[in-house]
Amino acid sequence: MSIYRLGMPLSRRQHKSLTRFVLDQYNLDDDSLSEITAALSDYSSLGSLCVMGNQIRREGCLLLGTIFGSADKCYHSTQRLSLSRIRSITAAGLRALSHLFSSACPVETLFLEEMNIGDEGAEALSDGLLGSTTSKHLVLTPNSAGSTQ
Q1: Which residues of 20-51 are buried (b: 16+ CB within 10 A; e: fewer)?
Q2: CA angle 75-94-42, nearest 5°?
Q3: From 1, 31, 86, 108, which residue has the greatest number of CB atoms within 10 Å?
Q4: Euclidean distance between CA atoms 130 and 132, whole angstroms
Q5: How many angstroms separate the most distant Cα atoms in the chain?
Q6: Total-model pTM
């Protein structure tokens, strides 16, 4: 089943009780992410979204930032977001995500393992963390080369 075809049954489900959604290594791009997140928008019990190892870029990060950071369109209980091994996310993408730490719908744990965040990405994340009162975990590990650059 293609990812695009998955969105329709998710949006039509009567019982929106899904608490964890994992789409690792599906080669998701920003358009695919848009379809999936739109389908999940009514799942208020979604506690964990994991899209590790996909092809999400700045636009996808902006979309995630909008969904998690907007009071009127919010996964109210989402506490964990995993973007690990998405090496296509740049400093601009991380800056789009950085407000998630102090938004109306804060993400308590953000996984950014095995990414090439570099100095600019680290600065973007630190800007987001400055005023955070809800962040509990930011998980950073080096990429397979042993570096976060």
Answers
A1: ebebeebebbbebbbbbbebbbebeebbbbbb
A2: 15
A3: 86
A4: 6
A5: 46
A6: 0.81
